């Protein structure tokens, strides 16, 4: 004997006194909601974003040749070389 566990949504609030109640309306509202939260709405200054995530590390940007080397798929040889260069018993990240 199997038991189905799940949920259903009968309506979604759109505004103060407005609701979506059909499957099509609810699906459309969900799609709009997730499209909005997972898309960028503003053009950000890259340097501000870099500072936010990486701080002012003073590291240099890649030139066009270095940038091109980073494009494309990784090869097995590149992955193996990276794994072999890691110290045993260590994990990535800061030790502080």
Tell me the quaternary state.
single chain
Q: What is the spatial order of strands in the main beta sheet?
A: 1-2
Low-confidence stretches: none
Which class do the helix and strand fractions yield? mainly alpha
Helix content: 40-55%
Strand content range = under 5%
Distance between the termini: 53 Å
Radius of gyration: 24 Å
Helix-strand topology string: EEHHHH
Largest sheet: 2 strands, antiparallel
Mean pLDDT: 80
Quickly count the helices: 4
Number of strands: 2
- Which geometry do the CA atoms define? elongated
Helices and strands, with pairings:
Layout: E1 12-13, E2 19-20, H1 23-37, H2 46-54, H3 64-70, H4 76-85
Antiparallel strand pairs: 1-2
Please give a structural write-up:
- The protein is built from 4 helices and 2 strands, in the order E-E-H-H-H-H.
- The protein is mostly helical.
- The protein has a domain at 10-55.
- A hairpin with a 5-residue loop joins strand 1 (12-13) and strand 2 (19-20).
- The chain is elongated.
- The mean pLDDT is 80.
């Amino acid at each position: 004997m199997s038991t189905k566990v799940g949920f259903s949504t009968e309506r979604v609030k759109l505004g103060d006194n407005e609701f979506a109640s059909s499957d099509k309306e609810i699906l459309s509202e969900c799609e709009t909601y997730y499209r909005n939260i997972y898309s960028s709405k503003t053009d950000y200054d890259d340097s501000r974003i870099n500072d936010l995530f990486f701080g002012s590390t003073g590291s240099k940007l890649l030139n066009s040749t270095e940038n091109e080397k980073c494009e494309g798929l990784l090869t097995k040889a590149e992955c193996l070389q990276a794994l072999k260069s890691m110290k045993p018993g260590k994990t990535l990240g800061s030790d502080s």
